[in-house]
Structure formats: C-alpha cells, structure tokens
Design goal:
Elements (H helix, E strand, L loop, with lengths): L3 H16 L3 E4 L5 E7 L2 E8 L2 E9 L6 E10 L3 H16 L3 H16 L2
Antiparallel strand pairs: 1-2, 2-3, 3-4, 4-5
Amino acid sequence: MLSANLIKIYRNVSAFAHQSTWEKGITKKRKPYIYATYNHHKIRIYGQEPYHAFQLHLKNKGERRYTFGEIYQIKNRSTLEAKELAYIALKGVLSTDTEEQDQLRNLYRELITSP
C-alpha cells in the first residue's frame, strides 16, 4: 500500500518531468544533451532512447560555479523516464529529511529495476 506522502512525491516528479522547460545544449566534445533547472541546480540528460545518462549539477550558495556529479547510466528507458529518475535523484540529494530520502531511494530503486 502506497503512503500519501509517496503519492505526493511521485506527483511532483511527474509534474517536473512534464511541465519543466527542457532546453538543448552541446558539450565541449560536441555531444547533445537536454537540461532543466530546479532551484538553481541543473539536471543534464545525455544520449537518446533507449540509452540515456544523467548528471546533476549542484549550485552551492554564494558560489558562481556548479559542482558536477557523477554520470549515471540509464539503459532501456525513455526520455521521460530518464527525466523522472534524474529528478528523483536530485530531490534525494537535496533532501534533509531522512524519511523522505528513504522514500526517494526506494522509489528510484523500484523504477530503475522495473522492466
């Protein structure tokens, strides 16, 4: 049985993936990507269906540059699923509530392991 909090989290995930402005960019190595911004942090999604990867760019308060995170591979997923997974990962990194972190971690695991 899903908790009301988990349903709320997934609604936020879905809203972000569908309603955010996703812009296109090109890396220094001429690889295309799309990105969106959430509270000054950025989510980059590389590749095309069904092979995607995402990277989180975290903005520290008072600094002009971003801290670049690891690149996480997502295979056999649509672009929409890649957006959702990247947002869940970002929310998990930013959350200070351990219960919310656990719920996000479990949701991420369920989505990444489902066929």
